[in-house]
Structures are given as C-alpha cells and as structure tokens.
Design a protein that fits this description.
It is a single chain. The protein is α/β, with parallel strands linked by helices. The strands form two sheets. It has a seven-stranded mixed sheet. A two-stranded parallel ribbon has the order 4-6. It has a single domain, classed as Formyl transferase, N-terminal domain (Rossmann fold, 3-Layer(aba) Sandwich), CATH 3.40.50.170. It has six helices and nine strands; from the N terminus they run βαβαββαββαβαββα. The chain is 37% helix and 23% strand. It starts with a strand and ends with a helix. The structure holds glycinamide ribonucleotide. Glycinamide ribonucleotide (GAR) binds next to α1, β7 and α6.
Length: 193
C-alpha cells in the first residue's frame, strides 16, 4: 500500500510512521513521499533519515485552504505517485472537495482530541481550557466537513490532577505516535495492494 504523508509542522507523527515502517510494524504499507506546504517545516527533515523523498509543494494562493492553483499542483503531483493512502499528519490547511473527490476514501487525518469534541485549531488547548478529564486523539477519514468524517480509531488520554498543559500535550502526542502507525498498518492489511 503506497502511502503519501502531508504535513506542515515538526513532523513527529511522520517520524513515528517511518520508524514503525523501519521496525516492520507498518503492515504492508510503504511511505513513498512526504510533502510539506511550508518550506521550513521540520517534517521535511525526516524523509532523508529514512530514505524517503520529502519535498515542499507550493500551496498558493491561499493561506488556510488548498484550493485553486495550489490544489491543482497537489492533485497533479500526488496523482503521479499513485497513492493508496494519503495521511494528513499535521497538515494545517483545509482540503476542499475537488481534492477529496479525486482521492475519494483514501485520505485520513490525525486530530489531537476525541472528535467530535474540540474540532478545528488547537484541539489540545481547547480540551485543556474546557477542563475535561479525558481527551485523546482521533484518526478519521477526510470529508468536506472539517474534522467531521467517519472515525477510524481513537486513543483516550486521562488528564491527571498534576498534569500541566505541556505534560498533557506530551501525552496526547505519545498517543498519536502509537495510534496513527497502528491505523495505517491495519488499513494496509485490508488494502490488498
Ligand atoms: C498533531 O498533534 C496533530 O494531531 C495536529 O498537528 C500535530 C502535528 O504534529 N493536527 C491537527 O491539529 C489537525 N487539525 P507533528 O507535526 O509533530 O506530527
């Protein structure tokens, strides 16, 4: 199963996926490309460590969504990779219907809360400020509704009395690093390619 990872940030989840692949824990999945929408994104540094191509792809003209010329560039380049799965791992940009329809049923997103609670930006901070005692992370299929597609799996994280926002965030990220590679491995076993 050919996997393409899209991200905007530090790429710790991309690294967890690549490490799982190296450890033989990613089922029949193979990461074939990492793409970032920011030239300075840390995610671009992880590809070379694992022998996987990583590149910046210009998302312009919009700042918070992938539409217009940028969407065309992404569709054309990703089509050429013939992916079976596109993983949004911290890709901080709204994906629009043309892209979603082109890769229908093949795009999954990682979100740092137990959806449908705390969608959108800063899911960790939202949960912390609301004072919930259990939060977690979610992997779901991407649809036109932001953070609203069918849920594939979730991992809960309990907030203990001595937690701080940074310690809570670390627990969420640790859960993400377990959950996302597990989901990809499971999907790869069902994929057949
Ligand atoms: C992750 O916590 C992921 O859940 C979040 O961005 C972070 C990326 O971290 N995604 C979203 O908030 C999407 N709405 P990383 O760059 O270290 O993998």
């Amino acid at each position: 199963m050919r996997v393409v990872i899209l991200g905007s940030g530090t790429g710790s989840n991309a690294r967890a996926i690549l490490q799982a692949q190296r450890d033989g824990q990613l089922g029949r999945a193979e990461v074939v490309q990492i793409i970032a929408d920011k030239t300075e994104a840390g995610i671009l540094q992880h590809g070379p460590d694992f022998g996987v191509p990583a590149r910046y792809l210009d998302p312009a003209p919009f700042k918070t969504k992938l539409e217009g010329a940028g969407e065309d560039r992404y569709i054309e380049f990703i089509e050429g990779l013939t992916p079976d799965l596109i993983v949004l791992a911290g890709f901080m940009r709204v994906i629009k219907p043309r892209f979603i329809n082109r890769f229908a049923g093949k795009i999954i997103n990682l979100h740092p809360s137990l959806l449908p609670s705390f969608p959108g930006l800063d899911g960790i901070g939202q949960a912390w400020r609301r004072g919930v005692k259990i939060s977690g992370c979610t992997v779901h299929y991407v649809t036109a509704e932001v953070d609203g597609g069918p849920i594939i799996d979730q991992e809960p994280v309990r907030i203990e009395p001595d937690d701080t926002l940074p310690s809570f965030a670390m627990k969420i990220h640790a859960a993400e690093h377990r959950l996302l590679p597990q989901v990809i491995a499971r999907l790869s076993e069902a994929c057949g390619d």
